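Task: encode each sequence below as structure tokens.

Item 1
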Amino acid sequence: MLNTNLYERFEKETISTVNRFEINKKDLNELKISFKNKIVLITGAAGSIGSQFSKDIFKYNLKPKKIIFLDKDENLLTELNRELLLIKNFSKITRRFICSDLTSINLDNILSKEKVQLYLNFAAIKHVRSEESIESIKYMFNTNSINFLPSKLMNLKKIFSISTDKTVNPSSILGISKHLMEMNLNKYKNKNVFLSSVRFANVAFSNGSILKYVVDRLIQKKKFGVPENVKRFFITHSEASNLCFKSLLKRNDKKIVIPNPKVLTKDYLISELTKKITKKFNFIPKFYKKGNINNNYKNRICYILLTSISDGQKSFEEFVSKKENILEDIDKSICKVDSPSYDKSVDDILDKILKSNDIDKLKKYLSIKFKNYQPPKKYIKVSRTI
């Protein structure tokens, strides 16, 4: 992947030089038992977290019998295949690559035909701007909330589905879609199957992220902007992957794992991280709020536009709502909360969304159902940020 080594270097130099979510020997042994000779399906396999997790299966020598890698991005899936071919243990397992997404495949057919035992879902539509059209909204809910879930358990022993901090007091349709995912996942709560999820901090320099955008614009010497007074917690790709592995441990069944805030230590102003990254390119960062800048990058000065926050974005992050109880773990790097209960209201809300054709009426309906969501008055069309 282009500039991968550069992104990894910036992860260490700006976020963390060590993996704050290391897996201890006891937990690693449990994971080896859990994965050994199993048939695994990974959806969203070529995304930032899914691809790191896929590679770490071999890093930790978990020895599954077969892995099916599914992703909608043909190019990223090809790149993942090429990277995996360089890993020593990869050639020893049976593997299959499928270019498709969760809205256009029959998930049940794959699970049944392949006799999948571990189903790990990393697929997600994650950008707030996907709320700008009714078609995009429906696609987001189909991907994030509905089609990730099989209708039958068949051979499944474990189901994992990725979540986000934005599910807590959701202020965006993205947050609502993942909130409903967490509830929908527990449709099988009383069945004999393991269920888990993870709420993430921002994965630094991941595809589509603000920090990767900053690096790419600096490389290209193009204008860019970042939001003013917005703070985020950041973790590295390897840390994100380890959090997913930890959520698959027996003690986290029917739980949502979150990074321990004490381990994250602090949230970062995006503008301050941008300043730090810009200096590493040997440019002098200077922020501005209005006007047009000519001759940007002249005399090694990089002018960076400070923008207001995009509609639907929070100025801060939260991992737990007031209604949830934080559960401590013997592993001090993580905490967890109980997975929310499923009830028929989830189906009713999703049915209403999929039948909607008027975006304004739909947003008004969602603002009634989810008190923290306020339909944006307008989107920042000219924003060069998130």
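Item 2
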Amino acid sequence: MLCFLAKIRHNLRQDYAKTHTMKLPKARKRGDAYRIELMFNGKRYSATRDTAKECEQWAALKILELKASAGESVAEETKPIFTFKQLFDEYFERVGRHSKSKDWILVQYKTFETKFGDLVHKNIHDITPQDLTAWRNRRSTQVKENTVLKEISLFSAMFTYAQKEMFLLDVNAWMQISKPVKPESRYRRISQAEIDAMLKLLEYEIGRVPTLPQHYVAWGFLFAIETAMRKGEILSMKRSEIYDGYVHLPKTKNGSKRNVPLSKFAKELLALIPHKDEKIIPQSSDAFRKLWERRKLESGIEDLHFHDTRHEAISRMVKVRKLPVEVLAKITGHKKIEVLVNVYYNPDADELVEMFNS
């Protein structure tokens, strides 16, 4: 995966021959794997990898890391040739696949070369702010500002990883470019007519036991509107986390656990689930998303996102249950009250007039 060793091996040996008595070590086969060891300032470091090349690549990076940590300079000629694609490979393996956003990151991984073209094969040491600015401008003509911002955040995290964890970069070029202006927060409610249209296209009626994949998408849509839970939280919801009056979410988007109260209708929806499996919705995130997007496209409803269910649910909770904002924040998991109030609570004019006069 990481193919930079051939060009730097000789330089590393020469460099370290001048400053240490050690040489760049060789990997030794141990059963079905390979093991490599090195000494630095009297301490031993080792790693086991599937191939000898991976072991040697690990050693080359480890030496650079140790030298940087010890305050020693790394000669320019010893810097590895490490492409943007190789960095994504390493980041996905070490960080991305363990992230809560792993499904989204995997989509970015699959479309990476299409988005960046020749830049994916460029050495990260040679990628300039000008390169990234040109990419940002081109990408901004293809997708909306929020998408560009989200993608920049991911790729910047990779360069920070290369800088602070792999000690390959001195600066993060992504931090040297201007970001698109963040658009105004969405103000989107979901009407009953839109709910009815989506349920019809998903071939589902309220009260029906879900059996087909599209039924579970419809069920999740209704459950989201009733609970204000995120799509990912609903898809990962387990039977063992459901109690008599609430759902316990052990790990959420912001890293905190929370309890979501269940209304009478939410309990009725849960009672409809026909199977006894631990996972309530028996679909992957990708399958669920594709089915939703296909049916939404067929509906002709403009500018509807599944996440708009959270706006609708929160607005309903205020209108119907008259929940104070501090209680509402505990239910929705918002740590910043201003985000809850200014982004997700979307009362219409009639609702404001009604509350004002009540």
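Check on item 2: Residues 145-164 form the longest helix (20 residues). The beta strands are 28-30, 33-40, 43-49, 246-249, 258-261.
End of task.
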